[in-house]
Amino acid sequence: MPFSSPEPIVLISALCRRKLKLVAFVVVELLKDSTVSKKMAEKWRVMITGASGLLGRAVFKKLSKDESFLIMGCAHSRCRGNLRQIDLMDLETTEKVVREFQPNVLIHSAGERRPDVVEKNEGKAKQINVDSTARLAQIMTSLNEDLKQPRHFMLYISTDYVFDGTSPPYTPRDQPNPLNKYGKSKLEGEKMLLAYHPIGGILRIPILYGEVEYLRESAVTCESLFPCSACLHSNAAISVTPRWAGGGDLTF
């Protein structure tokens, strides 16, 4: 695996206090410390899906300040500025864009993260959280086919909702047991990454807070201000309080 973690899965815990900037920092440090970055003399190309979202936006902002990276940020519904508009459910167009850019690292941050939306429209959520992940993983693997050493890797942004929250702190080797369709869809996405691109990495993150564009963008601000809103997980509710669980050579 290109990332310096001995595990393909790394957990970010409540020790990070869920702060968006710190999680973005961890993502960037994982990239900088990866095997591929150390072997490349030229700028290396990073593609970020969901770059208009809460985490993707923070990662895009931080990476854009580092001259050692050539960044392509992709978005769909909130595409603006220097972001590239892509509909991940349009697999043909998505593949064309990825192959043209030839990313050394693809950070797959896009996804349907709203549990209530997943519950109501499971099919569409599967397209975003599972099917697009599988196709991106296949594409990234194919980019390495004629190379002596792989130079193209994918980092899949997952969630602590793959656990049921009953026995924290969790380690990457703990058995997932998602209780709602959102957690199940993200776990299926993890399986697609490992099946089609086993040299890639999975980053499980908690609910985040940080600079939001609107209050419902983060479950933290949403549930604090709208406790009766659809942001609450209703009958799919779980209580996950992740803590630092190792799984990577991360220092804070």
Characteristic key phrases:
globular; 13% strand; seven-stranded parallel sheet; single chain; 7 strands; alpha/beta; 36% helix; 8 helices; disordered C terminus; Rossmann fold; 252 residues
Mean pLDDT comes to 75
Task: Give the fraction of residues assigned to helices.
Answer: 25-40%
Structural class of the secondary structure composition?
A: alpha/beta
CATH top level assignment? Alpha Beta
Counting H and I runs of at least 4 residues, what is the number of helices?
A: 8
The total tally of domains equals 1
- In terms of quaternary structure, the protein is single chain
CATH superfamily grouping: NAD(P)-binding Rossmann-like Domain
CATH architecture annotation name: 3-Layer(aba) Sandwich
Biggest sheet, open or closed, and with what strands and sense?
A: 7 strands, parallel
C-alpha end-to-end distance: 22 Å
Order of helices and strands: EHHEHEEHEHHEHEH
- Residue share in β-strands: 5-15%
General shape: globular
